[in-house]
Design goal:
- The protein is mainly alpha-helical.
- It has 2 domains: about 1-35; about 35-160, Four Helix Bundle (Hemerythrin (Met), subunit A), CATH 1.20.120.
- The protein is built from 6 helices and no strands.
- It has helices spanning about 1-35, 35-65, 70-80, 105-110, 110-135, 140-160.
- The radius of gyration is 23 Å and the shape is elongated.
- The structure holds heme C.
- The site of heme C has 21 residues, from helix 2, helix 5 and helix 6.
Length: about 160
């Protein structure tokens, strides 16, 4: 009985070593292929946006009272802390012509001043929202959240593909 058990363990061990080995073998060429500056810049940008979107979506669920959490302030602070990163996530090598799996429109790089104005509006709305969230007063929080949401749309409407 013990011997059978031992053999089963050994077999499982050999199997997992085999899977691990083939997994490692596959990582080599994949890692080389992914070593691409444009792809990484786009994916980083999308990850930053997804983080901001995650906090915004969490706040919306709390504000609609779908969940009972008293978490608005930390989400608001996370957005305000992350907002200045949005200045930096549009390097020249991250255009749709550099890496096609992006929803960022080429016009971002043709209208840098106008685009920066949308970022500035968002950063301001994020700061105002963090202040409102700190008040704990829903009568202040809700209009500030609305302003924040409009600052997202003001950019997405013109600079993000549908
Ligand atoms: C200054 C412009 C701008 C502002 C402000 C902005 N976004 Fe974005 N956002 C974009 C662009 C452009 C993309 C497409 C990025 C890409 O695909 O490379 C994007 C993508 C996204 C995505 C998809 C990310 C993914 O997984 O691909 C989410 C979610 C998002 N934004 C949420 C928000 C929210 C929420 C706000 C406001 C709180 C906001 N954004 C403010 C320009 C902006």
């Amino acid at each position: 009985m013990i011997k059978v058990f031992g053999a089963a363990v050994l077999t499982a061990g050999v199997l997992s070593v085999g899977v691990l080995a083939s997994g490692l073998w596959a990582v080599g060429p994949l890692a080389a292929e992914e070593n691409n500056e444009s792809k990484h810049a786009v994916e980083y940008r999308q990850a930053v946006m997804a983080a901001i979107g995650g906090h915004t979506g969490s706040i919306a669920r709390i504000a609609r009272q779908q969940v009972p959490y008293d978490h608005i302030l930390p989400h608001a602070e996370a957005i305000a802390t992350t907002a200045p990163l949005v200045d930096d996530i549009w390097p020249d090598h991250s255009k749709p012509t550099d890496y096609e799996r992006t929803d960022a429109l080429e016009s971002i790089w043709d209208e840098r001043d106008e685009f920066q104005a949308r970022i500035d509006r968002f950063k301001e709305a994020a700061d105002d929202f963090a202040v409102a969230a700190g008040s704990g007063d829903m009568a202040e929080i809700m209009p500030a959240f609305q302003q924040l949401g409009e600052s997202c749309s003001a950019c997405h409407d013109d600079y993000r593909a549908e």
